[in-house]
Amino acid sequence: MLTGTVLRREGGVYEVETPGGVTGAGLPGRMKRNDRSGDMVVVGDRVDMEREQAGTGEAWSIVRVHERSTVLSRRAPGKAPRPKVIAANLDQVMIVFAAANPTPHLRMLDRFLVIAEDAGIPSVVVVNKVDVAGEDEARRTFAPYEKAGYVVMYTAAKKGIGLETLREALCGTTSALTGPSGVGKSSLLNAIQPGLGLRVSAISEALNKGRHTTVTAQLIPLECGGYVADTPGLRELGLWEVDRQNLQFYFPEFTQLRDQCRYPGCTHVHEPGCAVRAATDAGELDFGRYDSYRRMFTGEDEEWR
Ligand code: GDP
Ligand code: ZN
User: Fold this and answer.
1) 187, 188, 192: which to mutate for ligand 1, most atoms within 8 A of CB?
2) Which atom of ligand 1 is closest in space to residue 156's alpha carbon?
3) pLDDT tens across 24-52, in order?
4) In 160-285, where do the E strands start and end?
5) This prediction's pTM
6) Domains of the chain: residue spans and CATH
């Protein structure tokens, strides 16, 4: 028996990294029949394999999938909303924004953070291009996130700033990298490992050109250990699956205040005596963050989905 990590999937063939190298594997017929959703084995899964059983067409057959520590899903195409798993066992999501050029769209950052919170995956905010905006300005812009308790890293791929910290965070872990285009994701990855960013953007491009249903993540092994997941579908995750009642728990800075609201079960949108709104009015909570919460709660931002 052989155990490995699923790096990618193409049709019915899984590319699995094992201690002895990368091998192809298939699903035995009985598992395949139970896998109508295609979610039984996904990128990032740890799988046990046995020598080929009749009919898989590959050298190895996947006989068991290990329990997943995390699951990242997106909305499957089609009328009835249902989740489609895009990656399993991610340790963290690195959300990359530029301090400037392009101007950071913080409300979009809030969306990414909520999606990661909902999946129970820790996120790290990476603020790149600090050479353009200046580090002081970058720190001011992203202060609400540090205050909320998120790890925020300040980098400049071009100037080699902050790369050691980023490297340490990536090595030995399985991380998804996401963020708007043009913020420097490929540049950062290339600075960590030459060629890595190129590979990731080539894959993104190939996948984005492909049919919608083929857009899945792939894991790219890091020389220093661990993997970077390229998740082209991450921006399509949307909030469709987030229960509105849970939304407030995905804003860590609300935690201390929630108990002080007059009404238990306060949604912090319209109730009198709301401590969250009072703190926002007093400038103790960041207005932008509160506004993101309110807009997500009321569904005002549908167009983002
Ligand atoms: P991606 O779309 O997020 O992968 O972004 P790229 O890595 O392709 O970078 C977009 C542009 O920003 C390129 O022209 C890069 O050379 C530039 N860039 C990336 N990182 C930095 C940085 O730290 N500082 C500056 N000034 N430019 C950067
Ligand atoms: Zn409240």
Assistant:
1) 187
2) 23
3) 999 988 889 998 888 999 999 999 999 97
4) 174-178, 218-221, 227-230
5) 0.89
6) 2-65 (2.40.50.140), 71-230 (3.40.50.300), 244-298 (1.10.40.50)
